[in-house]
Sequence to fold (247 residues):
Amino acid sequence: MDLKSQIDINNLPGHVAIIMDGNGRWAKQHNQPRVFGHRHGVRAVREVTESAAELGIKYLTLYAFSTENWARPKLEVDTLMRLLVDTLSKEIATLNKNNIRLDAIGDLQRLPSATFNALMDGIQSTRNNSRMTLILALNYSGKWDLIQATQHIAAQVLDGTLDPESINEALIQNNLSTHGIPDPELLIRTSGERRLSNFLLWQLAYSELFFSPVFWPDFSKEHFYQAILDFQHRERRFGKISEQLVK
Ligand code: FPP
Fold:
């Protein structure tokens, strides 16, 4: 039986987050420069976005560029930024055709203006779509997110509109860049690495983690289905014991 038909569509993760890793190593395997891996990574982005929407997953977040990625060689950073502009302008029509809304999290103002503008155009033009939200994490890091939330909260305390005693989980959640978006129930990381790499640190507190040995450019629909099936076979206890769960 094929993998897709084994998936229980009544038990899907509402939000899947992905650390797309291994583009550079994939390129090396093919005796090509690293940027060749990123270009092929776009194919996997398309494939996984399509399969997530087809299954009925409501939110898909992709770690496309971290705050630490600026430290890479300039050629690679410039190529990634250009690739984002090209991909966004090419794919907006497809997102609209498939009723997918684009969103982004991260310190977006610091992106090159062409990337920022392409992103804003995409977000604006897909804003009424409702089947799935595709969130690109760009110039994002989990620590940045917690810092900017803390700054917002501190400013409210300073101007007297917030009592420090009333700072709770919900308030912090509401000040994160992901406010209004449910936390990911499943995190996938490709390429065999088993790290969070400063991704959604607060939001991944209770997520199931799935590590795939496959390099991102080779990650296909079938690999995605495998991750979902693996998620469906896990027992999510949230600190409780097995017998306390409503089955
Ligand atoms: C990680 O592989 C990949 C990235 C830092 C960038 C991901 C970007 C894309 C897939 C292309 C554009 C994306 C969109 C959403 C249009 P790596 O370079 O760290 O690989 P390595 O660990 O093998 O060096």
